[in-house]
Amino acid sequence: MRPARSAPEPAEGAGPLAGVRVADLSRVLAGPYATMLLADMGADVVKIEHPGRGDDTRAWGPPWVGGEASYFLSVNRGKRSLAADLKDPEVRTAVQEVCAGADVVVQNFRPGVAERLGLGYGDVSARNPAAVYCSISGFGPEHEPARRPGFDLIVQAESGFMAATGEPGGPPTKAGVAITDVLTGLNAAVSVLGALVRARATGRGEHISVSLINSALSGLANVTQQALVTGEEPERAGNTHGSIVPYQAFPTADSDIVVAAGNDALYRRLCEVLGRGDLAADPRFATNPDRVAHRAELVAEITAELRRRPAADWLERLLEAGVPVGRVRGVLDALRSAQQAGDDVLLHADHPAAGPLELVRAGFRMGSAASGGERATTAPPLLGEHSAAVLGEFGVGADRIARLVERGTVHQAQRRDGESAHAPPSD
């Protein structure tokens, strides 16, 4: 094999990770979410998938659009897809070259699998000492019993996330999204960035371990600290807050709103808007600890007042007074409302099968975006859309790629006209 071509010089206005190569051996949510964030910042992310089925989430539908699962579309923009069967020795050798030539490798195989494939940290770092290698698992390398599989639902249960979620007196409830996967993806991306900084300074990479269980426990933040301080299990608070009053959802004349009067000054402003100066003067409610102690009485008074007017009226009045308030929205309503408010939450990409796509931006914005410096994203890839191009970059010739495609150990996506989506270089 010829060595991979050097990374191109970053274009003007390119993202901060332009020129960084990422070999993404992960699947489902945590790993793909992390690598999508790296792609958003300009990294060249090569997603390595099974040639027959691809990432598990390609089959996680409905809903579908153009035959593509919305779940897969949500976390795979900006990547290139290499569909390769790692059980084939020739293909495995090619993928080993891709990983050795990468600045970052991310994988979430079961413990021991990467090593058997010659894709473990030791294998990669022996050839590329500066490589940053990130292993993602459910329960971490030291957890007992060893090799325990972990999905978000299991980890939400095991971490206390479910116990902390739900209505008081009701059953434990999972969050409405795979929150431990998302937290793990964020932790993986942050740790990779830190390791990249050091690798650039010292020439030495690092093996990072990120687990769903540790991400969940740390993500519970004040709830875990409360448990440690009190020695007791925190009670579920539903849409209220165990330590702040009023900080919860309230009904109005037509729909629910949330009010977050997180300090004494905000509480007094709320009372002014409600026309209830007596509540501000009442010693039972003078400070936040007082209000927590007399929660039921105060919530009943506030609820009675808020029921008198529609949500839009209260939103206008409370926002004008500087009291944090929001409408309880559905997801689609929230997206459209944020976009209309100028939050610029949506990206647009043209998908070869699904057509024009709306995608949700990452939660951060970089200063370069304000001057048009943010790079345009590409749509989530078809399975094997870039197989020939990626293998060609690592010295595999056109005839050899054709043989691998013919025997089914590499898959190359076809355009609607029947041609390969990307042609490899000639031998």
From TrEMBL:
Bias (Basic and acidic residues): 408-420
GO molecular function, one term: succinyl-CoA:(R)-benzylsuccinate CoA-transferase activity
Disordered: annotated span: 408-427
Entry EC number(s): 2.8.3.15
InterPro entries hit by this protein: CoA-transferase_III_domain (IPR050483), CoA-Trfase_fam_III (IPR003673), CoA-Trfase_III_dom3_sf (IPR044855), CoA-Trfase_III_dom_1_sf (IPR023606)
Protein name per the record: Succinyl-CoA:(R)-benzylsuccinate CoA-transferase subunit BbsF
Keyword field: Transferase
